[in-house]
Structures are given as C-alpha cells and as structure tokens.
Amino acid sequence: MIKQMIKNTLVLSALITSLYATSSDLIKQGEEVAVAGDCYACHTSGDGQQYGGGVSFPTPFGVVYSKNISPDKENGIGSYTYEEFSRAVRQGVSKRGNLYPAMPYDSFHLVTDDDTKALYAYFKSIPAVSQKNKDDEIFFPFNIRFGLKAWNLINLSSDTWKKDPTKSDAYNRGDYLTNSLGHCASCHTPRDLTMALDKSKHLEGNFIAGTMAPNISSKELIRQGWTQDSIIAILKHGYSTRGTILGHMTPITYHSLSNLNDKDLNAMAVYLLNSDKKVEEKALTFNKHNKKDPGFALYAGYCASCHGMNGQGIPNTAPAMAGNGTLNQEEPLNTIYTLLYGIKIQRYSQVNAFPAMPSYNFSDEELKDLVNYLQNTFTNLNKTYTKEEIIEFKEKVISGAH
Ligand code: HEC
Ligand code: HEC
Ligand code: HEC
User: Fold this and answer.
1) Same domain, 298 and 179
2) Ligand 3, closest atom to CA 224?
3) What is the SS3 string spanning 273-331?
4) For ligand 3, atom 18, which residue shows the shortest CA distance?
5) Largest CB tally within 10 Å, which of 2, 51, 150, 218?
6) Each residue of 283-328: pLDDT tens digit?
7) What CA–CA distance (Å, rounded) separates 375 from 195?
8) How many domains does one find in the chain?
9) Ligand 2 site: residues with CB under 6 angstroms?
C-alpha cells in the first residue's frame, strides 16, 4: 500500500512537472513572439511602467496612445479571455471597440494561432502595472471608434498566413516573421488614400515623419548590392558594409531585431532577397575623385575625416560611403535628412552603438553639389539633381520632420 502511494505521488509529481514545463515553455515561446512583434517599444513609454502603454502615435486624425497591456484587471488586459485578446491583437477589436491601425493589426492578422496562444500566456504571466490609460486626442468625427469598423471591413483581410510550398523552410519562416510579427510593411509599404497598406507596392518604400523607410523589395536590395550577410548584420547590429540604421528604424533594431536568433535573422534575409543561395558580395562602389568638382572640396573638407578619403569608412567611427545603402536610394531624402539634422548617438543593441554625426548648415547650392558628388562618386545611380530639385527634397524632409 505504501509502495502504491509513493508510486502515485511520483506519477503526480511527474505530471505536475510536465504541466509546469509545458506552461513555462509556452510562456518562453510567448516572450520570443513578443520580441519579434516589438510589443515592448510601442507599449512602454520613456517615463512609464513596463507594458503600461502611453506611447503617443500621431495619425492624420489626431494622437492615439498605446494602451496598458499588462495583466492588470482594471487598466490592462487582466480581464481579457484568450478570444478577446486574440481579437484585439489580430482583428483590431478590443473591449474598447475598434482600434486605430497605429496598432499594426494589418500585419498581426497573419500571426498563427499557436503564436497568439503563447503571447496570451506570456502577457498573463508578466507583472501587472496599474498605469492608467491616456485619453486619445482624435478629432471629430474620427473619435467615434465605430467608424473604424467600416475601415476594418474594407481593409482587413481575414486570411491568416499561408506557407508557400514551392519555397524553402527558411524563406517561409522569413516571410512569416517579416510580414506578420515584424510588421515591416507598416513603415516600408506605401498607404493609399484610406491609409490602408497598398499591397501592390509591398515593401516598396514609404515616407514617414521626415525620413524614407526605403524600398526593401528584393529587386531593389539586390540592385543596391545587399547580401544575406549584410542584411543579417544591419538587422542584428544596426550597421553593415552598406551602412547603418537611423531614424525610426532604430528602436526596432534595439528592442526587436537585435534579440532575434541567427536562424530567424537568416530566414528574414533569405526572404528579403528572395534567394536561398548566398548572394555574392560586390566590391563597394568608389568611382574615383573628380578634384575639379565643387563637391570634392566639400567632401574632403567636411566629411573625409570620419568617412574616409575614399569613402571606405572607419571601423567604430563612421560607416563607409562607398556603396552605402542610404546614398543608393532612389531619392536623396535620407541623405539630406542626415546632413540637416545629423545623427545623435544611438544604441542598436546592448553592445553596439555609433558615435554621433554632426549636422550642417550648407547653402542650397552646396547641398546640391555635395549630394550630387556623393551619388556620382560612391554609387552607380547616375543621377544629377538641379538646385530646384534639391530644394524640393529639402522642404519635404523639413515639413515631414516637424
Ligand atoms: C507600432 C506600434 C505597436 C506595436 C508594434 C504593438 N502595438 Fe499594441 N497597440 C498600439 C496602439 C497605438 C494601441 C491603441 C490603439 C487604440 O486604442 O485604438 C494598441 C493596442 C493594443 C491592444 C488593445 C488594448 C485595449 O485594451 O484596447 C492590445 C491587446 C495590444 N495592443 C497588444 C499588442 C501586442 C501583444 C503586441 C506585440 C505582438 C503589440 N500590441 C504591438 C501600438 C502597437
Ligand atoms: C564626426 C564624424 C562624422 C563626420 C565629420 C561626418 N559624418 Fe556622416 N556619419 C557619421 C556617423 C558616426 C554616422 C552613422 C551614425 C549612426 O547611424 O548611428 C554617419 C552617417 C552618415 C550618413 C548615413 C549613412 C548611413 O549608413 O548611416 C550619411 C549619408 C553621411 N553620414 C554623410 C556625411 C557627409 C556627406 C558628411 C560631410 C558633410 C559627413 N557625413 C560627416 C560620422 C560623421
Ligand atoms: C517604424 C518604422 C519602421 C519599421 C516598423 C521598419 N523599418 Fe526598416 N527602416 C525604417 C526607416 C525610416 C529606414 C531608413 C533609415 C535607415 O536607413 O536606417 C529603414 C531602413 C531599413 C533598412 C536599411 C536600408 C538601407 O538602405 O539602409 C532595412 C534593411 C530595413 N529597414 C528593414 C526592415 C525590416 C526587415 C523590418 C521589419 C522587421 C523593418 N525594416 C521595419 C523604418 C522602419
């Protein structure tokens, strides 16, 4: 009899351990899903509590604040069932009503059931914080959440993510991470007049708040000379042979991408380049200096000390200009942004940071000479802008940045 009891206790404790292991595995998975979905950066404000919400998102209709998503019953998601949580994250309908698409459910609707269940388990397990939600500052008539229902009906596809059986596992994993949790489209895909993602121009670039989230379609990345290695490097460390991350992309790198494992980063690079085979690294473009060009004196005088005389860059000081992705973009918006505002010291991960780049007060004439010189010397774009075109780009950057 005692033997039997001991046996029962052993069976029971093994059962409890295995139950516990499953739920802690699920929570662990949920934590990884939360990192890939960058929930933290959008739901934790600088002076606020962890996952207490309160980050402001300007929209054409006014300011929306992210919400408390800790398991606090009164202010957070403590009283949400799994179905209610899943509807908020994937369909954009919470207990408050229809959510504004500042919450990227136009990408998150592709998140799988398994990952959503894990997310729910994780958010139920973190510490509850009592931070109160801020009232949104949306103008009439858009302050009626009901109106968003119509938006959802028009714009939200109910498709969940589907595997493409003609592609490799790595490509499929990269597709899933990029287009669901990574919500890369929310910045890199242009929007139409109703503010919905323009699916016909997937990842082909979008101008947001003064900077261009550039075209990252495979065709464009390959034209610019990106490889799996340089894409993995820029996502993981914030810098690569093709330059660094700056602007609104920086928090994504810091909180999300730099914490993904190498297999997932490789999968994203395979998907972005649409190639399982390693793309060969091309030599960085340096077309020799033309010392008679007025841009040469500007480059040599103001830039070469950090970016290298031949644009080769200096390790841990400044990225290469030769073959640089920013210079290589279809329009010089981010180059002009960088020259007007400089780049303050920014961290890309717990271990990686670059020093600051100063801002400059160039005349429009100098800006034109310098931008043309950079493009003609360090890329194969073969574009020369007039002063009027440069002024137009500059005004676009300034009005977007304010
Ligand atoms: C790009 C920013 C952004 C990201 C990334 C983001 N959220 Fe949100 N989220 C928001 C904003 C803004 C709102 C508030 C929208 C509103 O009130 O209309 C919101 C609302 C929510 C709500 C509804 C809360 C409620 O009670 O109404 C939930 C749940 C939620 N987010 C969960 C998540 C989870 C889980 C993740 C990560 C997988 C995530 N969010 C990632 C911006 C974001
Ligand atoms: C004091 C050193 C310094 C000087 C001088 C300097 N830069 Fe930079 N520059 C940097 C650093 C550091 C970065 C990257 C910062 C980051 O992304 O965190 C950078 C980034 C850039 C970028 C964005 C490309 C990328 O990959 O991030 C461009 C374009 C650029 N510099 C052009 C110039 C030009 C043109 C000049 C001269 C007018 C110049 N820089 C002068 C340090 C410098
Ligand atoms: C919050 C907006 C935002 C989101 C979300 C975002 N990006 Fe970006 N991204 C930008 C901006 C702005 C730039 C341009 C500045 C720069 O070059 O760093 C950029 C630059 C890049 C670059 C460098 C291109 C170059 O030429 O230097 C790559 C690669 C990239 N993003 C990939 C991604 C991927 C993959 C995702 C999804 C995991 C993503 N981005 C999500 C805003 C965003």
Assistant:
1) no
2) 26
3) HCCCCCCCCCCCCCCCCCCCCHHHHHHHHHHHHHHCCCCCCECCCECCCCCCCCCCCCC
4) 245
5) 51
6) 999 999 999 999 999 999 999 999 999 999 998 889 999 999 999 9
7) 33
8) 3
9) 243-244, 246, 302-303, 305-307, 318-319, 324, 326-327, 335, 338-339, 343, 346, 354-355, 357-358, 360, 370, 374
